[in-house]
Amino acid sequence: MIELVRRPRVLSIVAPVAALFFCSVAISSCGGDGDSATSELASWMPADSVVYIEGAIKPEGELADNVDQISNKLAGESLGDSLTTLLDDSGESDIDFETDVEPWLGESAALAVTADLSGYSTGNPLEMVSDTGSLDSSGEGKTDSTEVKLVVETTDSDAAQSYVDKDAAGRSDSTKGEYEGTAYTVSDSGSSVLGVSDDLLIAADSVAGFESMIDAHGGDSLADTDAFSDLADKAADGSLANLFATSAPVVDAVSGSGTTDESGSGAAGDSGGETGSGADPVYEALGIDPQNTGVLLSLIPGDNEISLQGVSNAGSEFVNGDPGALIETFPADTVFATGSDGVGANLRKIIDAVDEQGIEGALKPGELQKMIDEASGSGVDLNALIDSLETAGMFVSGNSVDSLGGALVVTSSDLKPLENSLALISTLISQSGDAQVRPLTGNVTGFSVRTPELPGRPVFVAIKGDRFVVAIGARAARQALGGGDSTLADSEAYQAAVSSLSGDGIDLFADPPALGKLIRDAAGRQPEAVKAVEVMNKFEYIGAGGSDEDGTFEFNLGLGN
Questions:
Q1: For 49, 346, 532, 542, which has the most beta carbons within 10 A of its beta carbon?
Q2: DSSP state letter for 98
Q3: Nearest Cα to Cα of residue 446 among 428, 475, 469
Q4: What is the extent of the structural domain holding 218?
Q5: What does the alpha-carbon distance between residue 299 and residue 25 come to, in Å, rounded to a whole number?
């Protein structure tokens, strides 16, 4: 794994080049012209790469101006100045960026992360974690198996080689090697491996990792996988950096197959091999191909916004409507809200898929629906309730820790089945522990529960009109049921978030300054809290949404004036 605590291992891989790449991606990338992720750089990455990031290095025109404007707002200095500071602190050799690196830098760079996930094939959670090295419960200090690989385009391969040689000369433990005709240097006790091939600087954090890149370029690589090929040309217009992630390595690890098909995508199940997990038939029934599913995220800096736009080829049959009509009724002091439309329809699709295929080792075909039918006979018609569900949402509101509240809100075309069961539910709660249960009055059906764990903030379970609400705090309950104070529809930050989205509607909203105020209220003047608040106050809104039509989604962060 990248060792950021002891010494930035990514920086040790390729010192200032890696620093440049990561700094550019962190801010919004350092340039580009909206091209898709390219198969050329991806052809050097192993097919089982979990994450792949590609970005342009040199900014131009309006895009460069946007990057610097965002950098100035967030860091108080331009990206170039931030980069210079980072480079000055990153290396132990005598490398000078302007002299030794900048003259040979090409237009693009790419990074991939690979990991040995074989531990996930075991059923023991502790073994799964220990095998991957993320957590060593035995205390033996196992080596982490996550590796980073980097490719940088060069305009002058001889100058790039001179950089590699100078970097090696400045490190006392440097050695040389060669693999398949490509020379490389090894330093930092084997954790930094550099070589030049085909006008590219190639870097890895182990000799085995470097060799795997050469092998990928000569055989099956990430560029050859079905998931990457399907998504590589779907980057958003104007993207400056693209991130690709695939589920295939995780699916293979969970299934314990450890195999890949001829494309390198891991879909060997079609050839009759023993692959796949017990849930694979359910994925198939839902129209999802987990072996060949990926997601492509494009990072786009605007003049006052950072946008992360994505697309997936999951191709599921789930409904993704617009929950905005519900979310905008939440209180105006909401700090976080999210929602989902088509809840009943999506639940029914899942139930039908599980019921049709079963889940190996857990549920037989037809068993889930049988359980739902049996539960429906005990007082609550679950089938009718599931089919009636429309939109679900939740919010957290309040301008201080003491006034914090929130609610889960579900709309339904028919809440009668649930309404008839509330009396039984309230009786069961009143018979347990120290809970004090009181029925609600007026035109609201339900009850409140007071417990010692939440002094002064009763929990409300209520039905009014087409809404079922579970809320913490009387004010949140009243607002969740559609009564009283001003709503998010009146909030400038919320309206700005909605306007920033180009899809079918809004699925998530957050108010960064309000979240910062809560952090300050809870943590006082602790240095970490102060820094977090300073960052949050630079943003006006966070908004996210998706589109059913083309499977796209976006996550936008608006910068305040």
A1: 49
A2: I
A3: 469
A4: 9-242
A5: 8
The pLDDT score that the predictor gives to residue 287 is: 66
What would the two tokens of residue 240 be? 């400056």
Cα–Cα distance, 20 to 14 (Å, whole number): 10
pLDDT band at 125 (very low <50, low <70, confident <90, very high): very low
| Distance (Å) of CA 125 to CA 122, 132, 290 | 8, 11, 22
| Cβ(481)–Cβ(462) below 8 Å | yes
User: Are the C-beta atoms of 301 and 240 separated by less than 8 Å?
Assistant: yes
- Take residue 307 and report the two structure tokens written for it: 């946008």
* CA separation for the pair 508, 326 (Å, rounded): 12
Tokens of 411: 């709309």
Mean pLDDT, rounded, for 544-557: 83
Domain-embedded: residue 525:
no
- The H-or-E segment that residue 501 falls in is none
**Using an 8 Å Cβ cutoff, are 444 and 464 in contact?**
yes
Three-class secondary structure assignment of 4-27: CCCCCHHHHHHHHHHHHHHHHHHH
Percent of the residues in the chain that have a pLDDT greater than 70, as a whole number = 75
At residue 156, the pLDDT reads: 94
C-alpha dihedral over 267, 269, 274, 276, to 10 degrees?
70
Q: Is residue 125 within a helix (H) or strand (E), and if so which, with residue range?
A: helix 125-132
Sequence-distant (6+) residues with CB within 8 A of 298 are: 235, 236, 239, 241, 242, 308, 309, 310
Tokens of 500: 């920033």
The verdict on residue 36 lying in a domain is yes
What would the two tokens of residue 129 be? 């974690």
* 181: Cα separation from own chain's centroid: 39
What gap in Å lies between CA 528 and CA 533, rounded to an integer?
Answer: 9
**Structure pTM?**
0.78
Which pLDDT belongs to residue 265? 41
* Whether the Cβ atoms of residue 54 and residue 37 lie closer than 8 Å to each other: yes
444 lies in some domain? no
pLDDT higher than 50, residue 143: no
Q: For the stretch 456-485, what's the b/e string if a residue is b when 16 or more beta carbons lie within 10 angstroms of its beta carbon?
A: ebbbbbbbbeebbbbbbbebbbbbbbeeee
> In whole angstroms, how large is the CA radius of gyration of the chain?
27
- The total domain count for the chain is 1
Name residue 276's beta-bridge partners: none
Please, what's the b/e burial string for 87-126 (b: 16 or more CB within 10 A of its CB; e: otherwise)?
A: beebbebebebeebbeebbbbbbbbbbbbbbebbbeeeee
